[in-house]
Design goal:
The protein has a four-stranded antiparallel sheet. The chain starts with a helix and ends with a helix. A hairpin with a 2-residue loop joins strand 1 and strand 2. The protein is α+β, with helices and mostly antiparallel strands.
């Protein structure tokens, strides 16, 4: 017992050294753990940035696709307005008559013609005869040109009437042809599916 008391200072020294080693070990391990956590956080941040970048690019592509689809849709609608799949006599004759009536043009006579195939298009003529002043005819043509459909005015003839007139703006006997158009659904470019076996064999022979 006396010997233990005499050597108690060594016990205290050893205990202190053990505690110091424990604290040192813990402190030395903390930087390593912190370094690992920092590296993990850095990798996670880089991964999240890449995901965000990919998502931004994805949504950007979607918006660009929406814009392109809208432009294509508007282009199709415009084309359908210009060149419908059918020609309506009622619509075209109403356009001519209502435009003339709105300008107080007299003696309007409209004669529809027959449809005529012209390659990719089919045209139909409407011959109009009327009495009006020169200004009235000019305004009439201007209003027709503002129509959404593709229309063409040709064979314009304006002559002074034989009737005696004392007005400042003399009446003219006018006539012209209005052409309306539609797509020719019969005239389609040939594709390999549309070619007959004979045509296909002739085509292959030419290639050889």
């Amino acid at each position: 017992m006396n010997k233990l008391v005499q050597n108690i200072h060594w016990v205290i020294i050893l205990w202190s050294l053990y505690n110091a080693y424990t604290v040192f070990s813990e402190n030395s391990e903390r930087p390593a753990e912190a370094k690992i956590k920092t590296e993990t956080s850095r990798q996670s941040l880089a991964k999240n940035k890449k995901i965000k970048k990919d998502l931004d690019l994805f949504y950007k592509n979607i918006e660009e696709a929406k814009v392109k689809i809208q432009k294509v849709k508007e282009s199709i609608e415009k084309t359908e307005q210009l060149l419908p799949t059918s020609i309506s006599d009622n619509e075209n004759m109403s356009l001519l008559r209502e435009t003339g009536d709105g300008l107080n043009i007299k003696r309007i006579e409209i004669t529809p013609g027959q449809e005529e195939e012209r390659g990719l298009l089919v045209a139909k003529q409407y011959t109009l005869k009327a009495n009006a002043t020169y200004v009235q005819f000019l305004v009439f043509f201007e209003k027709i040109s503002g129509n959404k459909r593709m229309l063409n005015i040709r064979n314009v003839s304006l002559q002074r009437t034989q009737e005696e007139q004392r007005t400042r703006f003399p009446l003219l006997e006018g006539s012209f042809v209005l052409e309306a158009y539609r797509f020719n659904t019969k005239n389609k470019p040939e594709t390999p599916q549309n070619l007959s076996p004979t045509k296909q064999s002739k085509t292959s022979d030419k290639k050889v």
